[in-house]
Structure formats: C-alpha cells, structure tokens
Amino acid sequence: MATPLVSILSYGLGNVGSFSNALNILSIEHNIISSPNCLSKANRLIIPGVGKFDDAVSRLKSARLYDDLIDFAITYNRPILGVCLGMHLLCQSSEEGSSPGLGLFDATVSLNKTSSCLPSCHLGWNIANDQLGTFPLANKRQEDFYFLHSYGLHDHGPAQTYLITTYSHTFISAFQKDNLFGVQFHPEKSGVAGLGLLKKFSQI
Fold first, then answer.
1. pLDDT of residue 126
2. Which of 68, 78, 152, 169 has its CA 20 to 30 A from that of 129?
3. CA distance 81 to 83
4. Which residue has the higher pLDDT, 117 or 192?
5. pLDDT by residue (tens digit) across 104-144?
6. Of 118, 152, 130, nearest to 49 (Cα)?
C-alpha cells in the first residue's frame, strides 16, 4: 500500500478535521498520525496547532513525539509545514511559555506588537505579501488568508524566503528554510488561497 502524500500530526491541539476536509476537497491522499512509529513513514508532514505553547510542548513529549519530530526533520529531510502554533513549535522558544520549542528554526516567537487602539489578538482576513517573489507555496504575490493569533514572528531569522503581513506592525506570516515551512495563518480556513497553498505543499 502506497504511503499517503501528506500526513497530519494529531497531538490533541490541532484542528485535524479541518485539514483533512481541505485535503479531501483537493483529492490529496492523506492520513492522520499520532505515534512515533508512523512519523518515520510520512512523506510530508503538517503540524497544526491551536492553543498554548507550553501545553503543546507537553503533549508532544507525553506522546513521545518531541524528540522524534526533531529526528524526522533532520534525518529524513522531508517537507514539514507548521501552522499557527505548529509554526511556533518549530522555533527555539516563545514568550507565551517557558518550554523550549523544537529548535528547528532559529527564531523566537513574541507577543504581537500593536498600537494602543488594536488588541494583541490578530483575528480575521489579512494580506500575506511575497515581496521577494520566491516563496515556494505562494500562488500570487499577494493573497488573503485567515489569521487568529496573539503571538508571532517579528524577525525572518534564517529564512531563505518568507511572506510578510501588517497588523499595526509588520510580522512574518510565513517562512521557508530548506525542508521547513511555517505559516502563521490558517490555510485550512482560507478558502481558495489556502487550498492552493496546501496543494503546492503536497507537490514539494
């Protein structure tokens, strides 16, 4: 039996069903995995996430996935897409908690920088700009995506290419470094633009 094109990691804090529905719309063969044994067989991995940073790290460790994710990224060199909190987990750490992240991307997540008239929670549709014109998962130089987050990346770190979005201040809404991809927005909730991004990820 052939290995599915995409695997979705289930660790108790991700909207796994929404990703599965989106991939079904695209007729992309996929599966949902939750154990280290299945992880090594994944062709491409989506790490979703909705919740608190420390809770996510704790759940990954309890499921014996934390160290195996690091090994999977480094040893197998297969595409990984971290979404929202999943993107934060790829980084070194987050101001939201005290636990170390997976440390696969050398950047720190911090509270959104906002003016006094805007809340720290960035909620709703906003434009992601591919200013360099090189982000591999982009279909257009500017696309609308759905955001829901109070913490994010405000420095592109060692990214080879990235997208930027403005919410009071500019922040990194997506990055790519080698086999690692991170997006702050929710492609599974972003209509045509989100489906296009997931399709491109399945073809990397």
1. 98
2. 78
3. 6
4. 192
5. 999 999 999 887 678 889 999 999 999 899 999 999 999 99
6. 152
What pLDDT band is residue 2 in, cutting at 50, 70 and 90? low
CB-facing half-sphere around the CA of 192: CA atoms within 13 A = 4
The CATH architecture that domain 6-203 belongs to is 3-Layer(aba) Sandwich (3.40)
What DSSP line would sit under the chain, residue for residue?
-PPPSEEEE-SSSS-HHHHHHHHHHTT--EEEE-SHHHHTT-SSEEE---S-HHHHHHHHHHTT-HHHHHHIIIII---EEEETHHHHHTEEEETT-SS----SEEEEEEEPP--TTS-S-EEEEEEEE-TTS--TT-SSSEEEEEEEESEEBSS-TT-SEEEEEEESEEEEEEEEETTEEEESS-GGGSHHHHHHHHHHHHH-
Catalytic residue IDs: 84, 186, 188
Distance separating alpha carbons of residues 187 and 108, to the nearest angstrom? 22
Mean per-residue pLDDT for 149-159? 94
Task: Determine the pLDDT at residue 59.
Answer: 96
